[in-house]
Write a structure and sequence with these properties.
About 0% of the residues lie in helices and about 55% in strands. By secondary structure, it is mainly beta.
Length: about 240
């Protein structure tokens, strides 16, 4: 089953001093029909003015993955050093047993980002943060795993790690990226009983007969296979979580 979520229908949530566009109920945006998608707790889109901060906390037992669409952000969580990330980079804040504050501050050009919140499947883990400034081979048209809680997705050799191995989640989930040329497609297969949530970052795609444009999303359940065709050159992000 495929449920299409149009960009115009996203909720508006006030959180951490910022206004977010939210795919699911979050902060003061409440919708009983959009509570979550399996173990995917939230998908939030944010835009920060130059020097502006998005600050939240405390949080626990959730992996917050930030994919930076444009600009630069200085990301920091209590007890850890600040990390700077640029467009196309990925940053993980795994809150584990609890983290008092989490903060994202935009650089001189401002920033836009997409955050995926994954509910942790592991109890008692220490908080951690991790980042990837870039990922190799993202422009090959296929889906590339950029964050994962499955050990088999983590390359064992040091060279592969340096070249952009997925950040490690405490959730049994994956986040994937695909940059698909116009007229081409990308396919992904998962296990039965999983839930998929695809966000169109840019371009226009088709899933079966459904056409999605930038900002739209699709929730896919009861199907282990997904094929995305790009009508225009497109970038998509795909979450694969327990249903």
């Amino acid at each position: 089953m495929i449920t299409i979520v149009r960009s115009a229908s996203l909720g508006m949530a006030h959180s951490g001093g910022q206004l977010l566009r939210s795919h699911f109920a979050f902060a003061d945006y409440q919708d009983p029909h959009r509570a979550h998608e399996g173990r995917l707790r939230a998908v939030n889109l944010g835009t920060l003015a130059a020097g502006a901060s998005y600050r939240i906390g405390p949080e626990a037992a959730v992996d917050i993955v930030t994919w930076l669409q444009s600009g630069t952000v200085a990301a920091s969580m209590a007890g850890f050093s600040q990390e700077e990330i640029g467009a196309g980079a990925l940053h993980l804040m795994s809150t584990g047993t609890g983290c008092a504050t989490l903060d994202w501050t935009a650089g001189a050009e401002g920033a836009s980002f997409i955050q995926f919140w994954f509910l942790s499947d592991t109890e008692g883990t220490a908080p951690l943060q991790d980042s990837r400034p870039s990922f190799s081979n993202l422009e090959d048209g296929g889906f590339r795993i950029i964050a994962s809680g499955f050990p088999e997705d983590d390359p064992e050799d040091e060279e592969a790690f340096a070249d952009g191995a997925p950040v490690a989640l405490s959730a049994s989930a994956r986040l994937l990226h695909a940059a698909i040329p116009a007229g081409e497609g990308a396919a992904y297969g998962t296990m039965p009983g999983r839930a998929l949530y695809l966000v169109v970052v840019s371009g226009t795609i088709r899933i079966g007969k459904d056409v999605l444009s930038a900002g739209d999303a699709a929730a896919i359940s009861e199907s282990a296979d997904l094929t995305v065709i790009a009508d225009d050159a497109a970038v998509v992000l795909l979450a694969d979580v327990a249903g």
